[in-house]
Every structure is written in structure tokens, then in C-alpha cells.
Design brief:
Elements (H helix, E strand, L loop, with lengths): L2 H4 L3 H22 L2 H5 L3 H8 L2 H24 L2 H27 L5 H8 L9 H23 L2 H17 L11 H8 L10 H16 L4 H4 L2 H25 L1 H9 L2 H4 L3 H21 L15 H4 L1 H14 L9 H19 L2 H12 L1 E2 L8 E2 L5
Antiparallel strand pairs: 1-2
Helix pairs in contact: 2-5, 2-16, 2-18, 2-19, 4-14, 5-6, 5-8, 5-11, 5-16, 6-7, 6-8, 6-18, 9-11, 11-13, 13-14, 13-16, 14-16, 18-19
Length: 382
């Protein structure tokens, strides 16, 4: 067994795949009419599916720390800058294609699609790719700060988000003219309700980086630092939830988390409950997934979402956006079966070795300065 295989934390791969499954299942239930058919009972399902976005963005933060920040510390920031810019462009391309698919599926007009591409409106699905495309660029100065000041800077940046929210909150619900939608998408302010904004969404990114920082010496120290960090994060969030529950009850907090109210307003309750869900999910998976060695061969297909996360999420949302609303099922069972079948077929498609190889090639290319028209090339090493 090679050292390279041992250096991979299996439960993180499982967590990434699980987050994508949750997100795409939620979108499929919307596309196939499952939540509409469930009526008020849909909230019972959304309590779980609503955790998909927090976990998905949280895992992105973990990857920034474990992959990009580590490489920047070892080889210098320039070694990751081009990669982050390329990934940002890929995320934006995935978002654009999702928007175009929404026009073809008759979910939005051409004018709405144009506004969505300029971050002045939202797509039917895949809006997290919009956040990613900006967050990838923000990651460059964030990693620069992280490498020079240590993990404490992540705590300070988390604090800065919610300190800044006290200023932004003064403009919540206040129309900002032509910049209203853009301000809502980027900063979570104005009269446009569209969460998580880029500003507030970085809460999950910084928290993911902070938790991942406790895993750098996991071979020697085990998972104790990781567990303690999860516990500290969960304790802070539970305190926030308890404070909110004192006003509206615990059931009220959970209901507002599930019904989109907290998310649309970029309310701190959305981030607190979301991070609790991340902590519980990662702790459970870290206990049941083998820490060392390769995963069984049968897991190759289920974990294809993790290996090709951008491709899986983008392709899934593009396909769902192509389905016209008129195709939505009127029954819960029909919608659930359609959603599960969609996920199975997408898994089989993404796990295709030819598609996976092509995606890996596209993900590894990087910009080569000074080569004129030869803009892209494969790196010298994998």
C-alpha cells in the first residue's frame, strides 16, 4: 500500500459525495414536483436536504485548506494561483451552462438568463456555482493571509463576516436601484432575498478551512484535534441556536431553517444550524469510515461524485434544468422514484472511465505564460 493512498482521508471523500447527492436529490425533487406533491410534509424532508448547501460549501473550505493552502505553504502562493483562477472559470462556465439549460427548459426568459449571468438574477438550479466562481478568486488573498498568520486568521475572518453583517443588516430590505440584485447576491443586502450571499457564505468556507487545519498531522495525532475542533464549532453554534430558540422555540428555528426563511435572509440561524449539521455529519462519517487504506472496490461508482464534484454538480443541474416544468409528477412516489433514478443514472454517467479521464484532463490543465496561442498545457506531474 503506497503512502499516497494512506494520505487520503476516506471519510472526506464520502462526505463530499453525500453533500452532492443531497443537493441533487433536493433539486430533482423540485424538478419532478416531489416537494409540491408533499405539501406541508415537505418540510420534514427539507430539514435534511437543506443541509446540502452548508455541507457542500463547508467541504469546499476543507479542500482549500488541505490542498491549496498546503501547496501554497510548501511551494509558494504562485503555484496555486493559476489553478484557482482556472477553477473559478470552470465554475462560472458550469453556472452559465445551467442558465442556458434553464432557458431551453423554459424555466426562465432570455432577459432573466442574461441578468443571471451578470449576477443580477438567479438560475433555477446551480446558484452555488456562482458563489464558487467568486470564492475561488477570493481564496487567493485568503490563502496568502492564512499562510502568513496561521489558522487563527480564519477565526478572525469568521468574526469579521458577522461584524460586517451588523453594517450590512442596516440596508436589508432597502432597495438599491440597479445594484439591488447584485448587492443581494454578493453581500446579502438590499431588497433582493437570495441566500447564501457570497459574503455570508464564506462562513462555511472559513469554518471548513479551520476544521481541516486540525487534520494536517492526523497520521501522528489521530483525529483528536479534529474532534475537539468540531466540538468547539458545534458548541458555539448550539449556543447561537439556543439564543434564537429562546425567542421562537427550537421547533421554530428548525422550521425557519427548513423553509428557506433563514437562508433567504442570510440569517445567522441558517449558518448555525448548517454548521451543526456539518459537524455531526463529519463526526459520524469519521467514526464509521475506515481511516487507513483503500475503500472497497464497489465504492468507486458511489464516490465518483467526490472525484468529479464540479462535473457531477454542474451536469446534474444542467440536465434537471432541461426538463420542462410540465413534466413534473403529480404524485410523491413518482417524483421520488424519478429523483432516485436520475441520481443513479447520473452516477453511472459520471463514473464512466472515459468521461472521468476527460474531466481529470480538463481539471489539470493550467495557463502557461508566454506561449501565445498555446494557452493550455498539462502539468509536468500529476
Amino acid at each position: 500500500m503506497s503512502g499516497k493512498k494512506l494520505s487520503r482521508l476516506n471519510f472526506i471523500d464520502v462526505a463530499r459525495s453525500y453533500a452532492i447527492v443531497l443537493a441533487l436529490f433536493s433539486h430533482a425533487m423540485l424538478a419532478f414536483g416531489g416537494f409540491a406533491a408533499l405539501g406541508d410534509d415537505a418540510l420534514k424532508v427539507k430539514v435534511f436536504t437543506r443541509t446540502a448547501t452548508p455541507l457542500f460549501v463547508f467541504m469546499f473550505g476543507m479542500m482549500l485548506e488541505l490542498v491549496y493552502a498546503r501547496k501554497a505553504q510548501e511551494n509558494g502562493l504562485p503555484t496555486v494561483v493559476r489553478r484557482l483562477i482556472l477553477r473559478s472559470a470552470q465554475c462560472y462556465l458550469g453556472y452559465q451552462l445551467t442558465v442556458i439549460a434553464g432557458v431551453i427548459g423554459d424555466h426562465m426568459s432570455l432577459r432573466e438568463a442574461t441578468r443571471a449571468m451578470l449576477f443580477m438574477d438567479s438560475a433555477v438550479f446551480g446558484n452555488i456555482l456562482r458563489l464558487y466562481s467568486v470564492a475561488m478568486l477570493l481564496a487567493i488573498p485568503i490563502i496568502w493571509i492564512r499562510c502568513r498568520t496561521g489558522s487563527l486568521s480564519l477565526v478572525m475572518m469568521l468574526f469579521a463576516i458577522w461584524l460586517g453583517n451588523t453594517i450590512l443588516d442596516q440596508y436589508s430590505g432597502v432597495p438599491l436601484g440597479r445594484m439591488d440584485a447584485l448587492a443581494g447576491i454578493l453581500l446579502g443586502t438590499g431588497s433582493t432575498l437570495d441566500g447564501p450571499s457570497v459574503w455570508h457564505g464564506m462562513t462555511f468556507v472559513f469554518a471548513g478551512m479551520l476544521v481541516a487545519a486540525s487534520l494536517h498531522n492526523w497520521k501522528e495525532a489521530g483525529l483528536k484535534p479534529f474532534n475537539y475542533t468540531l466540538l468547539a464549532m458545534a458548541t458555539v453554534c448550539i449556543t447561537i441556536v439556543a439564543w434564537l430558540a429562546a425567542d421562537v422555540s427550537l421547533a421554530g428555528v428548525i422550521r425557519r431553517f427548513a423553509n428557506y426563511q433563514y437562508r433567504s435572509h442570510n440569517h445567522i440561524g441558517y449558518y448555525a444550524v448548517g454548521l451543526i449539521a456539518c459537524a455531526v455529519t463529519l463526526f459520524v462519517l469519521s467514526r464509521i469510515i475506515p481511516l487507513h487504506g483503500k475503500m472497497p472496490d464497489w465504492t468507486r461508482v458511489p464516490l465518483s461524485f467526490s472525484r468529479s464534484s464540479l462535473l457531477s454538480y454542474s451536469l446534474g443541474n444542467i440536465i434537471l434544468s432541461l426538463f420542462p416544468a410540465s413534466m413534473a409528477s403529480q404524485s410523491v412516489s413518482g417524483a421520488v422514484l424519478s429523483s432516485v433514478a436520475f441520481l443513479v443514472l447520473l452516477l453511472l454517467l459520471v463514473s464512466s472511465r472515459h468521461l472521468e479521464a476527460g474531466y481529470r484532463w480538463a481539471s489539470l490543465v493550467r495557463f502557461e505564460p508566454g506561449t501565445g496561442r498555446r494557452l493550455l498545457r498539462l502539468p509536468d506531474s500529476g
